[in-house]
Amino acid sequence: MSAWLARRGARPVGIDNSPVQLENARRFQSEFGIDFPVHLGNAEQTPFPNASFDVAISEYGACLWADPYRWVPEAARILRPGGRLVFLTNGIIRLEPAPSSHAKGPPDP
Known about the structure:
36% helix, alpha/beta, Rossmann fold, globular, two-stranded parallel ribbon, 5 helices
C-alpha cells in the first residue's frame, strides 16, 4: 500500500514489528526506486509525534493482531484533526469468485 501511495506523490511512513518484513520492504524499495522511511515498531506504541499523519492504514496488521484498546487510541493520537483510520483485511485475490458448478454459466432453462 505504501509503495502504491508513494508512486502517486504521497509521503508514506511504514511501521512493522517484523525485522524480516522491513528488510523485504527496503529491498523492494531499492529494486523499484521507491524511498520512504520504514520503522521497526508496534502499532500500539509508535515513535511518531501527535498529529503527524492525515491517514493511518493497517493492511493485515494492527487490525488483526494488536490490542484494539491500545492501537486505535494510538492511531487517533498520531492522526491530525479530520484524519482517517483505514484498515484492510482482504485483497483482490480474496474477492475473486471461486469456481463453482456454474463456472461455464448458468444451466440451460
